[in-house]
Amino acid sequence: MAENEIILGYDVGGTKLGIGLASSDGKILGRDRIENKDTYPEDILPQLVEKARSLVADAGLKMSDVKGFGISAPGPADIANGVLTAPTNNVHWRNVPIQSYLENELQIKGCFENDANCAALAEWFFGAGRGCHDFVYLTMSTGIGGGIVTNDTLVRGTGFYGGEVGHVVIEANNGRLCGCGHHGCYEAYCGGRSVALYIQKLLKDQPDHPIVQFAGGKVENIDMVVLEKAVRANDKLALEIWEEIALRNAQAFGMLMNTFNPKRLILGTFGWAIGELYTEPIKKYLPRFAWPETLAQCEIVSSELRRDMGYYAGAAAAMYFLLGKRA
Ligand SMILES: [Zn+2]
Protein backbone atom coordinates (compact mmCIF):
# COMPACT_ATOMS: atom_id res chain seq x y z
CA MET A 1 0.00 0.00 0.00
CA ALA A 2 1.30 3.43 -0.92
CA GLU A 3 1.80 5.98 1.85
CA ASN A 4 -0.84 8.59 2.44
CA GLU A 5 -3.59 7.54 0.15
CA ILE A 6 -6.48 9.99 -0.17
CA ILE A 7 -10.08 9.16 0.68
CA LEU A 8 -13.40 10.96 1.00
CA GLY A 9 -15.94 10.47 3.75
CA TYR A 10 -19.62 11.27 4.10
CA ASP A 11 -21.53 11.29 7.37
CA VAL A 12 -25.31 11.27 6.93
CA GLY A 13 -26.75 12.86 10.06
CA GLY A 14 -30.33 13.74 10.86
CA THR A 15 -29.78 17.50 10.69
CA LYS A 16 -26.36 17.82 9.06
CA LEU A 17 -24.34 16.02 6.45
CA GLY A 18 -20.57 16.09 6.95
CA ILE A 19 -17.97 15.63 4.22
CA GLY A 20 -14.28 15.11 4.90
CA LEU A 21 -11.27 14.66 2.64
CA ALA A 22 -8.60 12.72 4.48
CA SER A 23 -5.23 11.09 4.03
CA SER A 24 -4.68 7.57 5.28
CA ASP A 25 -2.06 8.72 7.81
CA GLY A 26 -4.95 10.28 9.70
CA LYS A 27 -5.09 13.90 8.57
CA ILE A 28 -8.16 15.81 7.41
CA LEU A 29 -7.25 17.78 4.26
CA GLY A 30 -10.58 19.53 3.87
CA ARG A 31 -14.10 19.47 5.26
CA ASP A 32 -17.56 20.84 4.69
CA ARG A 33 -21.12 20.31 5.81
CA ILE A 34 -24.61 20.61 4.39
CA GLU A 35 -27.78 21.32 6.35
CA ASN A 36 -29.90 18.19 6.14
CA LYS A 37 -33.03 19.02 8.08
CA ASP A 38 -36.23 18.01 6.27
CA THR A 39 -34.42 17.75 2.91
CA TYR A 40 -35.14 15.74 -0.22
CA PRO A 41 -32.51 13.41 -1.66
CA GLU A 42 -32.86 14.86 -5.17
CA ASP A 43 -31.70 18.23 -3.78
CA ILE A 44 -28.94 16.88 -1.57
CA LEU A 45 -27.29 14.15 -3.67
CA PRO A 46 -25.97 16.53 -6.38
CA GLN A 47 -24.59 18.78 -3.63
CA LEU A 48 -22.65 15.84 -2.20
CA VAL A 49 -20.94 15.47 -5.56
CA GLU A 50 -20.25 19.20 -5.94
CA LYS A 51 -18.85 19.56 -2.41
CA ALA A 52 -16.59 16.56 -2.92
CA ARG A 53 -15.25 18.00 -6.18
CA SER A 54 -14.60 21.36 -4.48
CA LEU A 55 -12.75 19.77 -1.55
CA VAL A 56 -10.57 17.72 -3.90
CA ALA A 57 -9.82 20.75 -6.10
CA ASP A 58 -9.10 22.99 -3.08
CA ALA A 59 -6.55 20.42 -1.86
CA GLY A 60 -4.79 20.68 -5.23
CA LEU A 61 -5.85 17.16 -6.22
CA LYS A 62 -7.85 15.44 -8.93
CA MET A 63 -10.74 13.01 -8.26
CA SER A 64 -8.58 10.27 -9.81
CA ASP A 65 -6.12 10.81 -6.90
CA VAL A 66 -8.87 9.74 -4.46
CA LYS A 67 -8.87 6.01 -3.69
CA GLY A 68 -12.51 5.88 -2.66
CA PHE A 69 -15.18 7.16 -0.33
CA GLY A 70 -17.00 5.87 2.72
CA ILE A 71 -20.53 6.64 3.88
CA SER A 72 -21.43 6.65 7.57
CA ALA A 73 -25.16 5.96 7.58
CA PRO A 74 -27.97 6.08 10.11
CA GLY A 75 -30.23 3.05 10.39
CA PRO A 76 -32.19 1.38 9.17
CA ALA A 77 -30.19 0.79 6.02
CA ASP A 78 -29.29 -1.87 3.50
CA ILE A 79 -25.60 -2.06 4.40
CA ALA A 80 -24.63 -4.63 1.76
CA ASN A 81 -26.04 -2.51 -1.09
CA GLY A 82 -25.33 0.96 0.27
CA VAL A 83 -28.98 2.05 0.41
CA LEU A 84 -30.54 4.39 2.99
CA THR A 85 -33.84 2.56 3.41
CA ALA A 86 -35.67 4.60 6.05
CA PRO A 87 -33.48 6.94 8.15
CA THR A 88 -35.61 7.82 11.16
CA ASN A 89 -34.71 11.52 11.24
CA ASN A 90 -35.66 12.28 7.65
CA VAL A 91 -39.01 11.11 6.27
CA HIS A 92 -38.29 12.11 2.65
CA TRP A 93 -35.33 9.75 2.31
CA ARG A 94 -36.70 6.32 1.43
CA ASN A 95 -34.69 3.63 -0.37
CA VAL A 96 -32.00 6.03 -1.58
CA PRO A 97 -29.13 4.15 -3.29
CA ILE A 98 -26.57 6.72 -2.16
CA GLN A 99 -23.47 4.56 -2.63
CA SER A 100 -24.12 3.63 -6.27
CA TYR A 101 -25.17 7.23 -7.05
CA LEU A 102 -21.90 8.64 -5.71
CA GLU A 103 -19.83 5.87 -7.33
CA ASN A 104 -21.36 6.73 -10.71
CA GLU A 105 -20.96 10.47 -10.31
CA LEU A 106 -17.48 10.54 -8.79
CA GLN A 107 -16.18 7.49 -10.66
CA ILE A 108 -14.44 6.15 -7.56
CA LYS A 109 -15.21 3.16 -5.38
CA GLY A 110 -17.37 3.54 -2.28
CA CYS A 111 -18.31 1.67 0.87
CA PHE A 112 -21.15 1.97 3.37
CA GLU A 113 -21.43 1.19 7.08
CA ASN A 114 -23.69 2.07 10.01
CA ASP A 115 -22.80 5.22 11.90
CA ALA A 116 -21.84 3.63 15.23
CA ASN A 117 -19.38 1.27 13.53
CA CYS A 118 -17.98 4.17 11.50
CA ALA A 119 -17.56 6.19 14.69
CA ALA A 120 -15.60 3.31 16.21
CA LEU A 121 -13.36 3.16 13.13
CA ALA A 122 -12.93 6.95 13.24
CA GLU A 123 -11.77 6.82 16.87
CA TRP A 124 -9.43 3.98 15.86
CA PHE A 125 -7.68 5.86 13.06
CA PHE A 126 -8.05 9.47 14.21
CA GLY A 127 -8.98 9.54 17.90
CA ALA A 128 -9.08 7.75 21.25
CA GLY A 129 -8.62 4.26 19.78
CA ARG A 130 -5.29 4.92 18.04
CA GLY A 131 -2.88 2.00 18.31
CA CYS A 132 -5.47 -0.15 20.08
CA HIS A 133 -6.20 -3.71 18.86
CA ASP A 134 -9.23 -4.39 21.06
CA PHE A 135 -11.72 -1.72 22.05
CA VAL A 136 -15.42 -0.92 22.24
CA TYR A 137 -16.94 2.43 21.29
CA LEU A 138 -20.36 3.47 22.64
CA THR A 139 -22.23 6.44 21.15
CA MET A 140 -24.16 7.26 24.38
CA SER A 141 -26.49 9.96 23.11
CA THR A 142 -30.24 9.90 22.32
CA GLY A 143 -29.72 6.17 21.80
CA ILE A 144 -26.92 3.75 22.63
CA GLY A 145 -24.95 2.56 19.61
CA GLY A 146 -21.91 0.34 19.68
CA GLY A 147 -18.88 -0.40 17.55
CA ILE A 148 -16.61 -3.28 18.54
CA VAL A 149 -13.07 -3.85 17.29
CA THR A 150 -11.53 -7.11 18.40
CA ASN A 151 -8.13 -8.37 17.26
CA ASP A 152 -7.95 -5.51 14.69
CA THR A 153 -11.29 -6.53 13.17
CA LEU A 154 -14.60 -4.68 13.26
CA VAL A 155 -17.42 -6.93 14.46
CA ARG A 156 -20.14 -6.81 11.76
CA GLY A 157 -21.87 -10.17 12.13
CA THR A 158 -23.49 -12.32 9.51
CA GLY A 159 -26.20 -9.79 8.63
CA PHE A 160 -24.43 -6.56 9.70
CA TYR A 161 -26.22 -6.37 13.06
CA GLY A 162 -23.07 -7.04 15.07
CA GLY A 163 -22.26 -4.40 17.67
CA GLU A 164 -25.88 -3.44 18.44
CA VAL A 165 -24.98 -3.22 22.10
CA GLY A 166 -27.84 -0.83 22.91
CA HIS A 167 -30.40 -3.52 22.21
CA VAL A 168 -29.04 -6.26 24.39
CA VAL A 169 -31.82 -7.03 26.88
CA ILE A 170 -30.49 -6.43 30.39
CA GLU A 171 -33.81 -6.72 32.26
CA ALA A 172 -35.63 -9.97 31.54
CA ASN A 173 -38.88 -9.31 33.43
CA ASN A 174 -41.06 -6.19 33.16
CA GLY A 175 -38.27 -4.32 31.42
CA ARG A 176 -38.85 -0.81 30.12
CA LEU A 177 -40.15 -0.51 26.58
CA CYS A 178 -37.43 0.30 24.04
CA GLY A 179 -37.81 2.22 20.78
CA CYS A 180 -36.98 -1.05 18.98
CA GLY A 181 -40.12 -2.73 20.33
CA HIS A 182 -38.41 -5.01 22.85
CA HIS A 183 -38.61 -4.61 26.60
CA GLY A 184 -35.57 -4.24 28.84
CA CYS A 185 -32.91 -3.14 26.31
CA TYR A 186 -29.80 -1.38 27.62
CA GLU A 187 -30.86 1.66 25.56
CA ALA A 188 -34.26 1.73 27.30
CA TYR A 189 -32.41 2.47 30.58
CA CYS A 190 -29.53 4.65 29.40
CA GLY A 191 -30.37 6.18 26.01
CA GLY A 192 -31.12 9.91 26.30
CA ARG A 193 -34.48 9.66 24.58
CA SER A 194 -35.65 6.77 26.75
CA VAL A 195 -34.48 8.42 29.97
CA ALA A 196 -36.28 11.63 29.01
CA LEU A 197 -39.55 9.82 28.21
CA TYR A 198 -39.33 7.84 31.45
CA ILE A 199 -38.98 10.97 33.61
CA GLN A 200 -41.62 12.87 31.62
CA LYS A 201 -44.11 10.08 32.28
CA LEU A 202 -43.15 9.92 35.95
CA LEU A 203 -43.68 13.67 36.45
CA LYS A 204 -46.53 14.39 34.07
CA ASP A 205 -48.85 15.37 36.94
CA GLN A 206 -46.23 17.15 39.06
CA PRO A 207 -45.62 20.54 37.43
CA ASP A 208 -44.03 21.87 40.63
CA HIS A 209 -41.41 19.16 40.89
CA PRO A 210 -37.86 20.63 40.91
CA ILE A 211 -36.91 18.57 37.82
CA VAL A 212 -39.82 20.12 35.91
CA GLN A 213 -38.68 23.55 37.11
CA PHE A 214 -35.21 22.88 35.67
CA ALA A 215 -37.03 22.22 32.38
CA GLY A 216 -38.58 25.68 32.43
CA GLY A 217 -41.83 24.33 33.88
CA LYS A 218 -42.49 22.15 30.84
CA VAL A 219 -42.54 18.40 31.45
CA GLU A 220 -42.03 17.74 27.73
CA ASN A 221 -38.69 19.62 27.85
CA ILE A 222 -37.14 17.23 30.35
CA ASP A 223 -34.00 15.68 28.82
CA MET A 224 -30.53 14.55 29.91
CA VAL A 225 -29.32 18.15 30.24
CA VAL A 226 -32.19 18.91 32.63
CA LEU A 227 -31.55 15.71 34.56
CA GLU A 228 -27.86 16.59 34.88
CA LYS A 229 -28.77 20.02 36.31
CA ALA A 230 -31.14 18.41 38.81
CA VAL A 231 -28.46 15.92 39.84
CA ARG A 232 -25.94 18.72 40.38
CA ALA A 233 -28.58 20.43 42.55
CA ASN A 234 -28.94 17.19 44.58
CA ASP A 235 -32.60 16.63 43.77
CA LYS A 236 -33.59 13.37 45.43
CA LEU A 237 -35.47 11.82 42.50
CA ALA A 238 -32.81 12.93 40.00
CA LEU A 239 -30.11 11.29 42.13
CA GLU A 240 -32.10 8.04 42.27
CA ILE A 241 -32.51 8.01 38.49
CA TRP A 242 -28.81 8.83 38.09
CA GLU A 243 -27.87 5.84 40.24
CA GLU A 244 -30.09 3.56 38.17
CA ILE A 245 -28.47 4.84 34.94
CA ALA A 246 -25.03 4.20 36.45
CA LEU A 247 -26.01 0.69 37.56
CA ARG A 248 -27.42 -0.18 34.12
CA ASN A 249 -24.37 1.26 32.36
CA ALA A 250 -22.12 -0.77 34.65
CA GLN A 251 -24.12 -3.89 33.83
CA ALA A 252 -23.58 -3.31 30.09
CA PHE A 253 -19.94 -2.26 30.45
CA GLY A 254 -19.23 -5.35 32.55
CA MET A 255 -20.82 -7.59 29.95
CA LEU A 256 -18.67 -6.00 27.24
CA MET A 257 -15.52 -6.28 29.36
CA ASN A 258 -16.03 -9.97 30.06
CA THR A 259 -17.11 -10.76 26.48
CA PHE A 260 -14.45 -8.88 24.51
CA ASN A 261 -11.77 -8.11 27.12
CA PRO A 262 -11.16 -4.71 25.49
CA LYS A 263 -8.17 -2.52 26.29
CA ARG A 264 -10.34 0.58 26.03
CA LEU A 265 -13.98 1.49 26.33
CA ILE A 266 -14.47 4.76 24.46
CA LEU A 267 -17.53 6.79 25.44
CA GLY A 268 -19.40 9.12 23.11
CA THR A 269 -21.52 12.16 23.99
CA PHE A 270 -22.53 11.68 27.65
CA GLY A 271 -19.04 10.44 28.48
CA TRP A 272 -17.36 13.69 27.44
CA ALA A 273 -20.24 16.20 27.73
CA ILE A 274 -21.12 15.27 31.33
CA GLY A 275 -17.75 13.88 32.36
CA GLU A 276 -16.90 12.46 35.78
CA LEU A 277 -20.36 13.04 37.18
CA TYR A 278 -21.46 10.45 34.62
CA THR A 279 -18.55 8.01 34.68
CA GLU A 280 -17.59 7.88 38.38
CA PRO A 281 -20.85 6.27 39.61
CA ILE A 282 -20.55 3.68 36.82
CA LYS A 283 -17.03 2.80 37.99
CA LYS A 284 -18.38 2.31 41.51
CA TYR A 285 -20.75 -0.42 40.30
CA LEU A 286 -18.43 -2.08 37.76
CA PRO A 287 -16.83 -4.64 40.12
CA ARG A 288 -20.27 -6.26 40.38
CA PHE A 289 -20.36 -6.95 36.65
CA ALA A 290 -16.78 -7.37 35.40
CA TRP A 291 -14.08 -9.69 36.64
CA PRO A 292 -11.21 -7.90 38.42
CA GLU A 293 -8.88 -8.90 35.56
CA THR A 294 -11.02 -7.60 32.66
CA LEU A 295 -11.86 -4.48 34.67
CA ALA A 296 -8.21 -3.75 35.43
CA GLN A 297 -7.23 -4.29 31.80
CA CYS A 298 -9.83 -1.86 30.42
CA GLU A 299 -9.38 1.88 30.40
CA ILE A 300 -12.60 3.95 30.22
CA VAL A 301 -11.95 7.06 28.12
CA SER A 302 -13.92 9.74 26.28
CA SER A 303 -14.24 10.19 22.54
CA GLU A 304 -11.52 12.47 21.13
CA LEU A 305 -13.38 13.39 17.96
CA ARG A 306 -16.57 14.52 19.69
CA ARG A 307 -18.44 17.12 17.60
CA ASP A 308 -16.01 16.65 14.70
CA MET A 309 -16.98 12.99 14.30
CA GLY A 310 -18.96 13.83 11.15
CA TYR A 311 -15.81 14.76 9.23
CA TYR A 312 -14.00 11.53 10.11
CA ALA A 313 -16.62 8.77 10.22
CA GLY A 314 -17.06 8.12 6.51
CA ALA A 315 -13.34 8.52 5.75
CA ALA A 316 -12.54 5.98 8.45
CA ALA A 317 -14.90 3.47 6.80
CA ALA A 318 -13.07 4.00 3.49
CA MET A 319 -9.71 3.47 5.21
CA TYR A 320 -10.87 0.20 6.76
CA PHE A 321 -12.95 -1.29 3.95
CA LEU A 322 -11.21 0.08 0.85
CA LEU A 323 -7.57 0.49 1.95
CA GLY A 324 -7.55 -2.42 4.41
CA LYS A 325 -6.05 -0.19 7.08
CA ARG A 326 -5.67 -1.48 10.66
CA ALA A 327 -4.35 0.01 13.89
ZN1 LIG B 1 -34.11 -2.05 21.93
What does this structure look like?
The protein is α/β, with parallel strands linked by helices. The protein has 2 domains: 6-125 and 308-321, 2-Layer Sandwich (Nucleotidyltransferase, domain 5); 130-303, ATPase, nucleotide binding domain (Nucleotidyltransferase, domain 5), CATH 3.30.420. The chain contains 12 helices and 12 strands. It has helices spanning 41-58, 98-106, 115-126, 186-190, 192-202, 210-214, 224-232, 236-260, 269-273, 276-285, 292-296, 309-321, and strands spanning 6-12, 16-23, 27-35, 66-73, 77-78, 83-84, 110-114, 135-138, 146-150, 153-154, 264-267, 299-302. The protein has a 5-stranded mixed sheet, with helices on both faces. Helix 1 (41-58) crosses helix 2 (98-106) and helix 3 (115-126) crosses helix 12 (309-321). The two termini are 15 Å apart. 45% of the residues are buried. The mean pLDDT is 96. The protein binds zinc ion. Zinc ion is lined by residues 167, 178, 180, 182, 185, 187.
- The secondary-structure class comes to alpha/beta
Q: Could you say what the CATH architecture of the largest domain is?
A: 2-Layer Sandwich
Count of the domains: 2
| Count of helical regions | 12
* Distinct ligand kinds: zinc ion
- Taking Cα atoms only, what radius of gyration do you get, to the nearest Å? 20 Å
Please give the CATH class of the largest domain: Alpha Beta
Strand fraction: 15-25%
Global geometry: globular
Q: Strand count, sense and closure of the main sheet?
A: 5 strands, mixed
Helix content: 25-40%
From the 3D structure, determine the CATH topology of the largest domain: Nucleotidyltransferase, domain 5
Q: How are helices and strands ordered from N to C?
A: EEEHEEEHEHEEEHHHHHEHHHEH
CATH superfamily caption of the largest domain:
ATPase, nucleotide binding domain
| Biggest sheet strand line-up | 3-2-1-4-7
Distance between the termini: 15 Å
Overall pLDDT confidence: 96
Spans of at least 5 consecutive residues with low confidence = none
Number of strands: 12
